[in-house]
Design brief:
The chain is an alpha/beta fold. The protein is built from 15 helices and 8 strands. Helix 6 links the parallel strand 4 and strand 5. Bound molecules: glyceraldehyde-3-phosphate, 1,3-dihydroxyacetonephosphate and zinc ion.
């Protein structure tokens, strides 16, 4: 399904939809198994880098299998950080139900231009669209950002302007908006205490009533996983994420509808694989380290969708009912070759 039935309920329902990044079969199976066990709606998101790494033809087959295994589970398939209208168009044709067009690194007018163009293309075939305004921290291969330290020091320069958000929404007609409030992508988000601009979220909720807000860079980088990674030969000193109680507050108190999590899944998988390699040096059957890695992803995602963080566990049936109420809409290209 698209994200619409999900956000209709999440908007003032005291829960958010977890958007989890998928790059291979183990990640997809771990995420899906956790959400099925918790009866939680979910967004599977695919970045440009994931498309390149796994090839869309394989990712599509893996995701189709997940949908077939749990037909009752509300799932949206979303492009993460799309950077061109052409990529958005291709994803619509590939069967995505939702796309992000990230023009946040462009000057404001250019961001409006590329976002409005992508929205037009996606809406024409019934696909929902997420835009981004303001700048996030973190530097990654395919996602433009700001050095996290500089980001925290000069946060006021990068946070989303609530008045501009209203103008952006009016001119682009996006269905949801990723806002910059102090989070960064990756495992090194804060040097000192984690601090998010919740007052900005409150202001944007006022200037853009009804617009679902999205938090990127929302991994918590749990210390126990960093300790495991470092204990078994890794080197990730000073890694720090957004504490889970702050995510919970963003969701339950400030009404954030979508929360993006990638780094915590990478950490869970890596910590487990490192542990197997270090404690069983003779092991060389990939199933015996990818299997435990997949289990670690299941536990991580169950923890995320639970009442202490996103609070989306148990909401699957209600989302399906909302989707039925809307007439079970599906994007035009869904299921087509
Ligand atoms: O926001 C970025 C996501 O973590 C995806 O990262 O471009 O390395 O796949 P990636
Ligand atoms: P993390 O790096 O905090 O997991 O954020 C992921 C993200 O925002 C994907 O778009
Ligand atoms: Zn992101």
């Amino acid at each position: 399904m698209t994200t619409k039935p999900m956000f209709d309920l999440a908007y003032d329902g005291g829960f958010a939809i977890g958007a989890f990044n998928v790059n291979n079969m183990e990640l997809c199976q771990g995420i899906i198994e956790a959400c099925a066990a918790e009866k939680s709606p979910l967004i599977l998101q695919i970045s440009k880098g994931a498309r390149k790494y796994a090839k869309m033809i394989y990712l599509k087959a893996i995701i189709d299998a997940a949908v077939a295994e749990y037909p009752w589970l509300p799932i949206a398939i979303h492009l993460d950080h799309g950077d061109t209208v052409e990529l958005v168009d291709q994803c619509c044709k590939d069967g995505f139900t939702s796309v992000m067009i990230d023009g946040s690194h462009h000057p404001y007018e250019e961001n409006i231009k590329v976002t409005a163009a992508a929205t037009k293309v996606a809406h024409a075939v019934g696909v929902t669209v997420e835009g981004e305004l303001g700048m996030l921290g973190g530097i990654e291969e395919d996602v433009v950002g700001v050095n996290p330290e500089e980001y925290q020091k000069n946060l006021h320069k990068f946070v989303t302007d609530p008045k501009q958000a209203a103008d952006f929404w009016e001119k682009t007609r996006v269905d949801s908006l990723a806002v910059a409030i102090g989070t960064s992508h990756g495992a090194f988000k804060f040097k000192h205490e984690a601090k998010l601009a919740f007052d900005t979220v409150e202001e944007i909720m006022k200037t853009c009533p009804g617009l679902p807000l999205v938090m990127h860079g929302s991994s918590s980088v749990p210390q126990e996983f960093i300790d495991l990674v470092n204990k078994y030969g890794g080197k990730m000193p000073n890694a720090k994420g957004v504490p889970e109680d702050q995510i919970h507050m963003a969701v339950t108190k400030y009404g954030v509808c979508k929360v993006n999590i990638d780094t915590d899944l990478r950490l869970a998988l890596t910590a487990k694989i490192r542990e197997v390699f270090a404690t069983k040096p003779a092991e060389f059957d990939p199933r015996n380290y990818l299997g435990p890695g997949r289990e670690a992803i299941v536990s991580m995602v169950r923890r995320k969708v639970g009442a202490g963080v996103l609070n989306s566990a148990g909401k699957a049936d209600a989302v399906i009912k909302q989707w039925e109420k809307l007439g079970k809409p599906m994007p035009a290209f869904y299921g087509k070759k």
